[in-house]
Design goal:
- By secondary structure, the chain is mostly beta strands.
- It has one domain.
- The chain is built from no helices and five strands.
- The strands form two sheets. A three-stranded antiparallel β-sheet has the order 1-2-5, with no helix packed on it. Strands 3-4 form a two-stranded antiparallel sheet.
- The protein is globular and about 25 Å long.
């Protein structure tokens, strides 16, 4: 099962704000994120440090 710290530095974290999941990312390209139930999302370009889903 995928966890938030599977890949990349531990500076990446997830926060729950107002029922919305906010991903705080580092400003790097080609990151692999595990979101929700084993859904893997590849981030090609991160323009902002916060991406709200």
């Amino acid at each position: 099962m995928c966890t938030w710290n599977d890949r990349g530095p531990p500076s990446r974290r997830a926060e729950k704000k107002g029922g919305a999941l906010v991903l705080v990312l580092t400003r790097k390209a080609g990151q692999t994120l595990c979101i929700g139930h084993g859904i893997t999302v590849r981030v090609l370009k991160v323009r902002r440090s916060s991406v709200q889903l």
